[in-house]
Design goal:
By secondary structure, the protein is an alpha+beta fold. Helix content is about 20%, strand content about 25%.
Amino acid sequence: MSKRKLEEGDIFYVERREKYIFGKILLDVSDRILKNEKQNSGLQSYDGCYLTAVYKGIYDTPILETSELIIPSAFILKKHFYSKKYKVDWVYYDNQVIDYHKLDFPENLLSIHEKGICFRKGELEIKTNFTREEYENEYKILGSIEGSFESLIDIACYYQNRKNLMEINRVVFLDSSDFRFAPEKRKEVYKQIGEDINQSYYEMALKHSFDLGRFYK
């Protein structure tokens, strides 16, 4: 197991039952964002988290053959990479510099006092027209932190029809916490907030006066 701590842009792999699954650290929320703008940040609830991606593919050898992602981004607890109880036996593979213009974030809903039911993505909180009943039932897609990267491995295995590699028999997956995994509901959300579903996070956030680039100067 590697002893160094992971950094943004690091690609690593984890072995599970003689198969290899690759991940990437996209963003250290505390070090990159919150140490500069903790107050009133839309990412404050993810203090202590990594934004992490999982590459598509389950490999027989530790050689990454694609840039395609099966999980484009999800929040996990940074400390679980290194704690004795939850640590992940990851191995450093490579580093690719993060282009913040291409960063993407999970999408979900949040009930905000005196504002209503809001679409949340990264720093964005955009009011929707969902009723309380819709929010609590059909559109109950709420933000979550997966905890350990091992949880993301289980989810990646599930989405690639490899349930035999899962450690836990999960019943809840990303369609309950991220509109990107619930495409029909996602269309309705974007229709309500009047945004182009195909635009990048950076483009949408910039229109709402949030320039992610300010954290990379």
